[in-house]
Amino acid sequence: MEGSAQSEDKRVERSKAKVLAETYRQLALNGISGVTIEGISRHSGIPKTTIYRHWPSRSALLIDACSRFGSVPEVPDVGSLQGDMRALLIDLAERLQTANWNSVYPSIIDAAERDSVIASMQTAMQKSFMTPFEIVIERARARGEISSRQSTDDLVAILVGPLFYQRWFSKQKIDSSFIDTIIDLVIRSTSDVG
Amino acid sequence: MEGSAQSEDKRVERSKAKVLAETYRQLALNGISGVTIEGISRHSGIPKTTIYRHWPSRSALLIDACSRFGSVPEVPDVGSLQGDMRALLIDLAERLQTANWNSVYPSIIDAAERDSVIASMQTAMQKSFMTPFEIVIERARARGEISSRQSTDDLVAILVGPLFYQRWFSKQKIDSSFIDTIIDLVIRSTSDVG
């Protein structure tokens, strides 16, 4: 009996993995609006009823599939705000210009404008991507490296906003001199005692 | 004969206007992926063949409809880079937080990832929205207000990127103190003779 329950578990895991892989594939290909339970069932060979047994709704499946896009970066700790920010921004620039989720993220942003469940997911994803930036800024604040009263949220937006902008809006290459320009601005402003 | 040609012209204008109004309505409601010629024909009462007579493709119609979203801001000229940038950023913040095209633009960004015609349109729209920023920066450069070697494109991205980021990614309110923080950073860095 135990053996049979185990093989049943394995079968469930395999079919869930198939569904997630197909969802991921369709997301990367067509963005979120191109993903339907119908299409996932057809391409994965897993019946719709089985899909709905594991995920109560299309949104629930999308959230699960999206959570596999891009891991959260590690938090660097080189001892200075400048060094930590540089490591994080270089890593972000690399991800923005190569990772799979780049072509999917705008479809999530778009869907979030009209779907409150996707909007909550997007907020959570964004928050988790940006946590390392918050940590290095708060750590620098604790070390006394940040003397200005700028909020951490504002500093994060000033650091990463220009990179997001270049990737999705102006469609320009993000190089290391651009990153250095941003860091230079932020370092001067945060160390201002005036 | 002339009178009849004129009324024919008017009828054409009226049906084109109906199609554009319906396209605009569907865009605002569902984003670009929700717009179909089929649906526009059904809701506007204009036959598909007539729509295709005026616009050779769905992309051509979308481009025409999108070009009516948000006019390009006027170029301020208060005599200083700081004043001009402030006027433009306050105007941009207002637009980002109230205008109709806010909920449509992510769908354009998304479609641009997969459709090269939409991508060209998006690049042209973005360029035209940002032209006033380029003009005030170039004018300040000519006045000798900008002593750094930062490119105009980089400065535009550093100015507007954080606003775009707050609107669509972090979903935070853009207030005037945030705008002042950004301008302060840019003014210091551009006036640096070092």
TrEMBL record, chains A, B:
Gene3D superfamilies in alphabetical order: Homeodomain-like, Tetracycline Repressor, domain 2
Keyword set includes DNA-binding: yes
Protein's UniProt name: Putative transcriptional regulator, TetR family protein
Residue ranges flagged as DNA-binding region: 36-55
Pfam families in the cross-refs: TetR_C_11 (PF16859), TetR_N (PF00440)
Superkingdom of the organism of origin: Bacteria
Upper taxonomic lineage: Bacteria, Bacillati, Chloroflexota, Ktedonobacteria, Ktedonobacterales
Keywords carried by this UniProt record: DNA-binding, Transcription, Transcription regulation
Annotated organism of origin: Dictyobacter alpinus
PANTHER family for this protein: HTH-TYPE TRANSCRIPTIONAL REGULATOR RUTR, TETR-FAMILY TRANSCRIPTIONAL REGULATOR
Entry GO MF terms: DNA-binding transcription factor activity; transcription cis-regulatory region binding
InterPro entries: Homeodomain-like_sf, HTH-type_TetR-like_transc_reg, HTH_TetR, Tet_transcr_reg_TetR-rel_C_sf, TetR_C
Boundaries of every HTH tetR-type domain copy: 13-73
